[in-house]
TrEMBL record, chain A:
Transmembrane segments: 12-30, 101-122, 131-162, 174-195, 242-264, 284-304
The keyword Membrane appears for this protein: yes
GO MF annotation list: dipeptide transmembrane transporter activity
Stated family: Belongs to the binding-protein-dependent transport system permease family.
Compartments it resides in: Cell membrane
Gene Ontology CC terms: plasma membrane
The organism's place on the tree of life at top rank: Bacteria
Entry annotated with the keyword Transmembrane helix: yes
Full protein name: Peptide/nickel transport system permease protein
Start and end residues of each ABC transmembrane type-1 domain: 95-300
PANTHER family, per database record: DIPEPTIDE TRANSPORT SYSTEM PERMEASE PROTEIN DPPB-RELATED
Membrane-related topology note: Multi-pass membrane protein
TrEMBL record, chain B:
Subcellular location: Cell membrane
GO biological process, one term: peptide transport
PANTHER family with a match to the protein in the record: ATPASE AAA-TYPE CORE DOMAIN-CONTAINING PROTEIN (PTHR43297:SF14), OLIGOPEPTIDE TRANSPORT ATP-BINDING PROTEIN APPD (PTHR43297)
Top-level taxonomy: Bacteria, Bacillati, Actinomycetota, Actinomycetes, Propionibacteriales
Gene3D superfamilies attached to this UniProt entry: P-loop containing nucleotide triphosphate hydrolases
Protein name: ABC-type dipeptide/oligopeptide/nickel transport system ATPase component
Family per similarity comment: Belongs to the ABC transporter superfamily.
GO CC annotation terms, alphabetical: plasma membrane
Organism: Nocardioides albus
SUPFAM superfamilies associated with the record: P-loop containing nucleoside triphosphate hydrolases (SSF52540)
Gene Ontology terms, MF aspect: ATP binding; ATP hydrolysis activity
ABC transporter domain: residues covered: 18-264
Membrane topology: Peripheral membrane protein
Automatic annotation (TrEMBL), chain C:
Lineage: superkingdom: Bacteria
Protein name per the record: Peptide/nickel transport system permease protein
GO biological process, one term: transmembrane transport
Protein species of origin: Nocardioides albus
Record localization: Cell membrane
Family per similarity comment: Belongs to the binding-protein-dependent transport system permease family.
Length: 317, 302, 285
């Protein structure tokens, strides 16, 4: 497994480096430069010069990148323009709800999407199987912010079954905690579950219609074994390569879910950063979210690889 | 051919193990994929079925196993021992599959599961069809591999299919059919993708296991030359129908249907000089109007 | 439609019946998209009211003869705003899709054609792009360059371009090895010419399917930006922005929140249905 991990890191590390470049490029495209934007464009050149010196903006761009990257690697995410505090102080308290909701959402999307996708693949010629597949088509195109507002409106405001007043930490009790994250987790997972279902279904159908599954039927292997032992193993590879997209979709929805449910997470932090033109925080959050996507897909990849002998073999050679 | 007649001679079969009558498999196309086929398979005998692709050979085999693609409308009769299989549910069919009848396919690279070791694939086949413990299963697997002349059993068992040569993979496939303990094996173009010398080896193995285990084999090929060497009987299919059927000797020596003659003429033979290029005649005519076909069609109804 | 279709192994399918591509459902979907685009283009002439005209005496009203779809929280005509909202929705989607194609097609051709190290690097870049959530980047870009539709949708187009590129690439590699390309080369056709003449037409169908899936996604991202108040500047009409305005009044006027959301969902679903229909048509060919 260690060797698999090393093999994967050869891909993951360059990817993360490229993400840092893309994220840093956000600073470059600010019209008039960060200082100008920070000061509203009306201040005299001396002030701009002072600001540039203070934030290191007078250095060549590649030098700025490396000092920024070096800071990121040391855990120094920069200084917030909005508060003057370290960005890590802005972001730190926002991680708890995000990690929990994104992590549980991903788990839910993989498990529910996997199970429903399997069902739809096995029962692809029945009415219910086709209905499930058609429903995922709607699930994919359903805007979460709309659906979330309706669900929050009905369950939270009208019926008062679940709270919509933000995040209750675990320390305040298990039941209040779980009820505060129930709707966000289910809703954030909704589009990814639909995507996962469609993807699992199509790869499972390809496996089920393959010659080797026909062989298994001919040899009298039971349908349970064909579905869960044989075809599923062959579907794992394509499902793994789908993980980054799934994770990216999920993390993207966080912005919406945080805003609708007033959650203190990275999603609302990025919206705040935009409103306060807090570029260092903005960059740090985009970077964190993208790295989270890479790490989530890495974890999913490793777990699924552990289940698949051929991939395990390929990874070690 | 001499092998074939000698092996069949010392056995008196007690009725066919699989009996197909008037089988029609229709997908709603202009013509049914299988259009009134009648065949018998006997234990210890090999029935060679020749015909070009799309003539309904494989569909007849798949339908007998209950593996016709969805959307097939099936009529007629398929009797395995005393059990009628047309119209029964998948539960019954899956009981017959494996332990009763099984099938081996061409292109073993695709037909064996690429992500599962040979050992596990064979063991799964044993476990699906027999009630036995781990050691007994292993013994069965090793015996079957010896039967198909794969003596380096450990190496084979620890391989993935893509690590085996085409001939070895096909022999693994035959071993898999053997460990199921089936009485009937359908072999669909088992040697088509292999080169000529390997082809011969695999055919000889099929002949031998059929004799040793008293298996009823339906051997499907587009190449009647391959079939005539090891089959006891031959059937020729064309456009969903059996147009000629009989003992291998009779069919080869005195083919009655023009299509059979055309198939035979297309094989180059040692001693016979191929004087002219034989073009496959086109048979876009109503088959039932041909005298030979008529006779066979009637014969199968009786 | 999954937004990225990953190359899966071709399977021999015992498919006997031809799949019908253009079912009544997909024809309706295509008609809905065409109608929405037309309404969006003709909104200034079709809309019964000024979408910005407020009326404090008639807020959150249900459907009536004067206001077929009722009014919003400041008394503006929901129907007129919905019509103008279509303009924003499809303009934003078009910007993103055009950007996506402008970057993705040359990228894919280059990656598939040049191969080697260039291909390896372009794969890593694609991985990096696909790891940045589209909506997050769109939000960030808006934050950097200020509110407005065009820049953020260009950013979304850039972010989604690798899935077009990777799809083209996976279509090119087998074609590159094919005989007719070898023949074309033997006849002295240049690589670039061969790529454009032979590869693009062959990959056209799969790319179109992909574009439909991604267009549907872009439309949702566009609406989400509006919902966050970062796309079209209020009070200019956009489906996402209008939804954000009324959703707090859900208990008083549930109907008002339904219209913009339903429009977004219908548009996104219809676009992806067209993609499904094209895909079904390709499956048999």
């Amino acid at each position: 497994m260690t060797r698999v991990l090393i093999g994967r890191l050869r891909v993951v590390v360059p990817t993360i480096l490229l993400i840092t470049i893309l994220t840093f490029a956000l600073r470059v495209i600010i019209p008039g430069g960060p200082a100008d934007a920070l000061l509203g464009g009306s201040d005299n050149p001396d002030t701009i010069k002072m600001i540039n010196e203070r934030y290191g903006l007078d250095q060549p761009i590649w030098q700025q990148y490396f000092s920024w990257l070096g800071g990121m690697l040391r855990g120094d995410l920069g200084t917030s323009y909005a508060t003057g505090l370290p960005v890590s102080d802005v972001i730190g308290p926002r991680l708890a709800s995000t990690v929990e909701i994104v992590g549980l959402g991903m788990l839910l999307a993989i498990l529910a999407g996997g199970a429903i996708g399997m069902y739809a693949a096995i029962h692809r010629s029945t009415r219910l199987g086709r209905l499930v597949f058609a429903a995922t088509g709607i699930g994919v195109s359903l805007p979460v912010f709309w659906f979330a507002t309706i669900v929050a409106g009905i369950l939270g405001v009208a019926l008062r079954i679940l709270p919509v007043n933000g995040y209750t930490p675990l320390a305040d009790g298990l039941v209040p905690h779980l009820s505060s994250i129930a709707m966000p987790v289910v809703l954030i997972a909704l589009p990814s579950t639909a995507l996962m279902t469609r993807h699992v279904r199509s790869t499972m159908v390809a496996a089920l219609e393959s010659p080797y599954v026909r062989t298994a039927w001919a040899m009298g292997i039971s349908s349970r074994r064909v579905y869960f032992d044989l075809a599923l193993k062959n579907a794992i590879g394509p499902v793994v390569s789908f993980m980054p997209f799934l994770a990216a979709t999920l993390v993207g929805e966080l912005v919406i879910i945080d805003v609708v449910f007033v959650l203190p997470g990275l999603g609302s932090a990025i919206v705040d950063a935009v409103h306060f033109r807090d570029y260092p925080s903005l960059q740090a959050i985009v970077l964190l979210m993208s790295v989270a996507v890479v790490l989530l897909s890495l974890i999913a990849d490793l777990v699924l690889t552990a289940l698949d002998p051929r991939r395990r073999k390929e990874a070690t050679t | 051919m001499s092998r074939a007649s000698s092996s069949a001679a010392h056995r008196v079969p007690d009725g066919p193990v699989l009996s197909v009558r008037d089988l029609i498999v229709d997908f709603g196309a202009a013509e049914p994929a299988v259009n009134g086929v009648s065949l018998d398979l006997w234990q210890g005998r090999i029935l060679g079925v020749a015909g070009q692709s799309g003539s309904g050979k494989s569909m007849t085999a798949l339908t007998s196993l209950g593996l016709a693609p969805p959307g097939a409308h099936i009529t007629g009769s398929i009797r395995f021992r005393d059990q009628e299989l047309v119209g029964v549910g998948q539960r019954t069919l899956s009981r017959v599959r494996g332990s009763g009848m099984t099938m081996i396919f061409q292109e073993t690279n695709a037909a064996l599961n690429p992500v599962i070791q040979v050992r596990k694939q064979l063991t799964l086949a044993v476990r699906a069809n027999r009630d036995c413990n781990q050691d007994e299963a292993h013994e069965l697997v090793v015996d079957a591999l010896r039967d198909v002349r794969l003596d380096d059993t450990d190496r084979v068992l620890n391989s993935y299919p893509h690590e085996l040569s085409g001939g070895m993979a096909q022999r693994v496939m035959i071993a898999m059919a053997l460990v199921c303990g089936a009485d009937v094996i359908f072999a669909d173009e088992p040697t088509t993708a292999l080169d000529v010398t390997v082809q011969r080896e695999v055919m000889e193995i099929i002949r031998r296991v059929a004799d040793e285990h008293r298996l009823a084999v339906m051997l499907i090929s587009h190449d009647i030359g391959v079939l005539e060497e090891i089959s006891d009987e031959l059937a020729v299919m064309y456009r969903g129908r059996v147009v000629e059927r009989g003992s291998t000797d009779d069919v080869i020596r005195a083919p009655e249907h023009p299509y059979t003659r055309a198939l035979l003429d297309s094989i180059p033979r040692i001693g016979h000089e191929l004087t002219e290029f034989v073009e496959m005649p086109s048979f876009d005519m109503d088959l039932t109007s041909l005298p030979a076909a008529e006779r066979i069609a009637e014969g199968s109804h009786s | 439609m999954s937004a990225i279709s990953l190359p899966t192994k071709a399977t021999t399918r015992a498919r006997v019946r031809r799949k019908k591509a253009w079912t009544p459902g997909s024809i309706i979907a295509a008609a809905v998209v065409v109608a929405m685009v037309l309404i969006g283009l003709l909104a200034p002439w079709l809309a019964p009211h000024d979408p910005l005209q407020t009326n404090s005496a008639n807020t959150l009203a249900g459907p009536s003869a004067a206001h077929w779809l009722g009014t919003d929280q400041v008394g503006r005509d929901v129907l007129s705003r919905a019509m103008f909202g279509a303009t924003a929705a499809f303009r934003g989607t078009a910007v993103a899709v055009l950007t996506m194609l402008a970057i993705g097609i040359p990228w894919g051709l280059a990656a598939g054609y040049v191969g080697g190290v260039a291909d390896e690097i372009s794969m890593r870049v694609a991985d990096a792009f696909l790891s940045i959530p589209g909506l997050v980047l769109a939000v960030a870009i808006t934050g950097v360059v200020g509110s407005g539709l065009t820049m953020s949708m260009i950013a979304v187009g850039v972010i989604f371009s690798p899935s077009i590129a990777m799809l083209l690439r996976s279509n090119i590699i087998p074609i590159r090895r094919s005989n007719y390309l070898r023949a074309a080369r033997a006849l002295g056709v240049s690589d670039l010419r061969a790529a454009v003449r032979h590869v693009l037409p062959n990959a056209f169908g799969p790319v179109l399917v992909q574009v439909c899936g991604l267009a549907s996604l872009c439309l949702i991202v566009q609406a989400a930006l509006g919902f966050l108040g970062l796309g079209i500047t209020p009070p200019n009409p956009s489906w996402g922005g209008d939804l954000a305005d009324v959703y707090l009044f859900f208990t008083q006027a549930p109907f008002a929140t339904v219209i913009p959301g339903l429009l977004i969902a219908t548009a996104a679903f219809s676009i992806s249905r067209i993609g499904d229909a094209i895909r079904a048509g390709l499956d048999v060919g």
